[in-house]
Amino acid sequence: MKFKLFSKAYAACLAVVLFANGCGSGGGSTSSASFDQAVPEIKADWDKAVAADKANDYFTASINYAKLINQESKLTSKQFENALTASRELSQRMMAAAEKGDAEARAAQVKLMTSQQRR
Questions:
Q1: How does pLDDT run across 31-76, given as a tens digit for each residue?
Q2: At what angle do helices 58-69 and 40-54 cross, to 10 degrees?
Q3: Are 105 and 98 within 8 A, CB to CB?
Q4: Does residue 119 have a pLDDT over 80?
Q5: Which of 52, 57, 78, 114 is the most exposed place for a label (fewest CB within 10 A)?
Q6: CB contact burial 12-49 (16+ within 10 A = b; e otherwise)
Q7: 118, 108, 119, 115: which is closest to 7 by C-alpha?
Q8: How far apart are CA 46 and CA 69, in angstroms?
Q9: Which of 39, 65, 36, 43 is nearest to 52 (CA)?
Q10: How far apart are the C-alpha atoms of 58 and 49, rounded to whole Å?
Q11: What is the pLDDT of residue 20?
Q12: Which of 21, 26, 10 is nearest to 95 (CA)?
């Protein structure tokens, strides 16, 4: 019971974070190609996020996607859309994994919530 409440609270918190960044009714596929010509710092953040995402390092990927999303003015519309979509997909996978009992996903949720509370 406590975990279900925690999951709902986390989902609500994450939704606020994502939607507060000005997301639209996006869509589209996430493609690294949109970051090929990005400035080195932006490309590095994308590469870190994608690598962590592929490794199911939920916390690192979430932080790096959020960092990109928060730099919307420095991104093309396609880059912003790709970062937002990737972040949403990661969040969905993380919540699903946590609901199935994945300890790493649960730990990432706690760490993300803790880091949000500090802001």
A1: 789 999 999 999 999 999 999 999 999 999 999 999 999 999 999 9
A2: 150
A3: yes
A4: no
A5: 114
A6: eebeebbeebebeeeeeebeeebbeebeeebeebbebb
A7: 108
A8: 10
A9: 65
A10: 9
A11: 39
A12: 10
**Looking at this protein, which amino acid is placed at residue 61?**
A
pLDDT higher for 105 or 30?
A: 105
Distances 18 to 10, 22, 35, 39, 102 between C-alpha atoms, Å: 12, 8, 20, 23, 23
Token pair for 2: 């406590």
The pLDDT > 90 percentage for the chain reads: 65
C-alpha pair distances (Å), 94 with each of 63, 73, 77, 89: 13, 28, 26, 9
Answer positive or negative: Cα dihedral of 53, 47, 8, 26: negative
Which comes out higher in pLDDT, residue 41 or 14?
A: 41
* Contact yes or no for 35/82 (Cβ under 8 A): yes
